[in-house]
Amino acid sequence: MLPTSQQTIGPFFPKGFFGPADHDLTRMSADAAPTTQGEAVIVRGTVTRAGGVPCVNAILEMWQADAQGRFNADPAFLGWGRTFTDAEGRYAFRTVIPGGFTDDTGTRAPHANITVMGAGLMRRVLTTVFFPGVDTAADPVMASVPTALRPLLVAEKTRREAGLRAFRFDIRLRGENETPFFDL
Amino acid sequence: MSEAPWPPGIEPVVPVPGYPNTWTHTPARAPFTRVPGATEHAAPAALHRKLPAGEANLAEVVKGKPAIGQLMEISGRILDEAGRPVPGAVVELWQANAAGRYAHAIDTSAAPLDPHFEGHGRVLTDADGRYAFFTVKPGAYPVPVQETWWRPPHLHFSVFGPSCLSRLVTQMYFPGDPLNAIDRILQAIPDEAARSRMVARMLPPASVGSVHLGFAHDIVLRGRYATPEG
């Protein structure tokens, strides 16, 4: 069978779909305790379109391995979160610094995948965020991007928030310093 | 599991003429090709804990307070490319009300809100990959762009499959609506057969009964999955 086509998520993805901890990858649900493994951090940024104009109600989904570089292994860690951008295009996730791992593609540096959907995006886009100070030289996904663009995939350290290290990762859908995206 | 590249003609062609936002939001650079690895092939096994099944009856969320509109049931199956059902898939549906207005602060159209219609629900597929929602048929609405353009009645679907690459957000259309042929979003799909697969099938009214209309719509996710995950 052939897959069903993608269509834009549009501007009206309901606020009612969001629970209070949906942006928090470190816990299974709002009423569950967060994982005790790994360093909890904040990843925040803005989503902008051509001209640096903020995107409102863009929907972001973040997915990553746990602090040991495993998927679906820590029963307290979901590793998935969803949020939407506010009127200024801002988003934020709470997560842990993921562990690196080795798979069929090679040795993966610690990373998270972020997919973005929104009005005007007929297909979702998918990018990968790495963390500063982490060696990505051997990472096969980083290697698929031209050297000059690689810094665009590395989050920037910002000031701590409520005792947690925080990182900034801006997603520019189109135009100057456009974020590198990957095939779906 | 494996996800073949999208076959030709199925993905929308972007940017879309007459849909100005696609010219400012679509990346100018082509996506980079990399071999999908563990991150792409995996997906959260316990997603239903964060996205629990909720309302399947959008037409009467509060008993005795029905929404206004043409009552209908939409049902079908979530399948993989091998035609196997995807059990336990999270399926989200949202839509405009019968007047073509979304219950969303961003929708500032002049069409009336229906105090009894929020227009969104979430279910999990059963062992046969089946989902069903009871709702009202959405109305058409104009898109606020310079060249007049009306969206045909449609339902939005968000589906989570067994891998991150099978994640799908799509829309479903109604058979026989004259706006389908001139909808810039539906017509952005080049392949006619692919477009027709986004149009639901009306069930014979005599078999559905005298309370509501019935529509059937299957959604096929990318990938072939030998065994269900999680």
What would you note in describing this structure?
The complex is a heterodimer of chains A (184) and B (230). Chain A has 184 residues and is an all-beta fold. In chain A, the strands form three sheets. In chain A, strands 1, 2, 5, 10, 11 and 12 form a six-stranded mixed beta sheet that branches. A four-stranded antiparallel beta sheet of chain A has the order 4-3-8-9, with no helix packed on it. In chain A, strands 6-7 form a two-stranded antiparallel sheet. In chain A, a hairpin with a 3-residue loop joins strand 1 and strand 2. Chain A is globular and about 40 Å long. Chain B has 230 residues and is mainly beta. Chain B has five helices and eleven strands. In chain B, the strands form three sheets. In chain B, strands 1, 4, 9, 10 and 11 form a five-stranded mixed beta sheet that branches. Chain B has a four-stranded antiparallel beta sheet with strand order 3-2-7-8, with no helix packed on it. In chain B, strand 5 and strand 6 form a beta hairpin. The radius of gyration of chain B is 18 Å and the shape is globular. The mean pLDDT of chain B is 94. At the A-B interface, strand 3, strand 4, strand 8 and strand 9 of A face helix 1, helix 2, helix 3, strand 8 and helix 4 of B.
Instruction: Please identify the top-level CATH class of chain A.
Output: Mainly Beta
Assigned CATH superfamily of chain A: Aromatic compound dioxygenase
In the CATH hierarchy, what is the superfamily of chain B?
Aromatic compound dioxygenase
Strand content of chain B: 15-25%
